[in-house]
Specification:
519 residues, alpha+beta, 4-stranded antiparallel β-sheet, 24% helix
Length: 519
């Protein structure tokens, strides 16, 4: 009798479908920070049709895995909390999966190339000493490994860690110090996700959805979609190719056996070039696994590898910003970026860097963006300036002022607003002058130039107005001044700043378009 019962039990186990392990998305693990005041998606994988519930902070949300095995719930917005709480994911008829030590606060993603990747251990000694003072109890760090893929990935091998001196040492310095400042200023948990790759171009970081609707990139978008696995524009021709190959193989073998010409082999659809300095691969493997985690915003420090592309870089920034906001389901997510520091790229490239400075500043026309100017803390002999804590502070000023509503802060140095030419010279007006323009060395503002309509620039004398809001530029060599430029050289290290000590950004009144042509 016992033997028969055992056989019956074994039969039941064999005929019942095995329940696949319920897997959560990689960011949902011990130590995570969840975004406050926003709907928080929680998702993962299971058997198709698997029913489960997610319980956290007094909320219980049901879910059923779809045909592809993906399940997702949406937690209602929550207030910030530094209390360590546990999330439970419970499959029907099975034990709960528990994720302990979860906090609720602010989450930011830092990305770009080597200056974003630059770790605390390679910053100036003062920055290293600051990070070594002790753990930041409200700060958690998540380091995305450097991986490439043609296809969008769901998983990433990384974990949340506390911001101890040991864990922070090889973490992105800009991301770490930005998170440190927010934790100290906001007094809420901060989660910093870092995902960057030295030497990377902007294109492989694109989500293709960001190119949609940008007229200048319409042809490029078509080309990219037709060469990107996972999109119908590529997948449909590729499936056709797979079908055609066996038919061709049969026809080719028959031709060889009969001595007739062998038909041409079907053409395989081409894929975008894979690589951090190529067309694709970084978004797919290093950003998409994070989607659609609830985040507050993004930090971006990149451009050296696109130097020389001038105003085209503004459009490429637009594609990046729009794409990431779409993927993370946050159309107003702040996108804060760093304007490159002066650096000697070599002969024949003197104006390439000023051109991209202007392109970066032009990206401020996109809503909810901010730019940290760094032309006073660079090193013209080193493309990797080491004062990363100050870079992070300047980014944090934009976040604290615009995102978190601090009205008592000056968020930027002077940025060009307008100019007017007269017989006496050219008057330049700026935004973000604070209590007035000044120079960091007490000397006359330098690196200003003026030119007539012939476009021949000469050094100009710059005089700050009595109210500190305007500069008057004059030159004895230019009888009828028409245009002006400032710090228009790759090695320019100007001294103009505002009363808050933040530097002025480079500008050119007539580049790339002569404004007088529209008059």
């Amino acid at each position: 009798m016992l033997k028969q019962k055992f056989k019956a039990l074994l039969l039941i186990l064999l005929v019942q479908p095995a329940t696949a392990e319920v897997v959560l998305a990689p960011l949902f693990q011990a130590g995570a920070v969840l975004q406050r005041d926003r709907v928080v998606p929680v998702w993962g994988k299971a058997d198709a049709g698997q029913v489960l519930t997610v319980t956290f902070a007094g909320q219980t949300k049901p879910a059923t895995a779809d045909a592809a095995g993906r399940w997702q719930v949406a937690l209602d917005p929550m207030s910030a909390s530094a209390t360590e709480r546990t999330m439970a994911v419970t499959p029907a008829g099975a034990s709960s999966i528990e994720i302990p030590d979860l906090l609720v606060g602010e989450v930011w993603i830092g990305s770009g190339q080597s200056n974003m990747q630059w770790p605390v251990s390679k910053t100036q000694q003062a920055d290293q000493d600051l990070a070594a003072k002790g753990p930041i109890l409200l700060l958690r760090l998540f380091q995305v490994p450097m991986v490439l893929s043609h296809v969008r990935q769901d998983q990433v091998q990384a974990k949340w860690v506390a911001a101890t001196p040991e864990n922070s040492r090889e973490f992105s310095a800009v991301s770490y110090f930005f998170g440190k400042i927010l934790a100290e200023e906001l007094k809420v948990p901060i989660g910093m996700i870092h995902s960057s790759w030295g030497g990377s171009r902007i294109e492989p970081w694109w989500a293709e959805e960001g190119l949609e609707g940008i007229h200048e990139l319409a042809d490029l978008r078509k080309q990219r979609l037709s060469s990107s696995p996972g999109f119908p524009e590529y997948d449909v021709p590729f499936r056709r190719f797979l079908k055609d190959v066996p038919e061709w193989s049969t026809a080719a073998e028959k031709a060889m056996n009969t001595g007739t010409p062998v038909p041409e082999m079907p053409t395989k659809p081409t894929r975008l070039k894979l690589g951090h300095g190529e067309e694709t691969g970084l978004y797919q493997a290093m950003i998409h696994p994070l989607v659609p985690y609830a985040v507050r915003g993004f930090l971006w420090y990149q451009g050296e590898s696109n130097n020389g592309e001038a105003m085209a870089y503004t459009t490429k920034m637009q594609a990046l910003i729009v794409g990431w906001r779409k993927q993370f389901q946050n159309d107003t997510a702040p996108f804060l970026f760093v304007q490159l520091a002066p650096y000697n790229y070599g002969a024949g490239k003197e104006l390439a860097l000023p051109n991209i400075w202007w392109a970066q500043q032009d990206a401020l026309k996109f809503p909810h963006t901010g730019m940290a100017v760094t032309n006073d803390i660079g090193d013209i002999k080193d493309i990797h300036p080491t004062q990363k804590a100050e870079v992070a502070r300047r980014l944090s000023l934009w976040a604290l002022a615009d995102t978190y509503g601090r009205k008592d802060l000056v968020k930027s140095g002077p940025l060009f607003r307008s100019h007017s030419a007269s017989q006496t010279g050219i008057a330049i007006k700026f935004d973000h002058t604070a209590a007035g323009l000044k120079t960091r060395d007490g000397q006359t503002p330098r690196l200003f130039e003026v030119a007539g309509k012939d476009g021949v620039f000469e050094a100009a004398i710059a005089q700050i107005s009595a109210d500190g809001t305007t500069l008057l530029l004059t030159s004895e060599k230019v009888v009828q001044p028409d245009r002006a430029r400032f710090a228009w050289s790759q090695v320019a290290e100007p001294n103009l700043m505002n009363s808050a000590g933040l530097p002025a950004g480079a500008f050119h009144t007539h580049w790339p378009i002569d404004p007088t042509l529209a008059k």
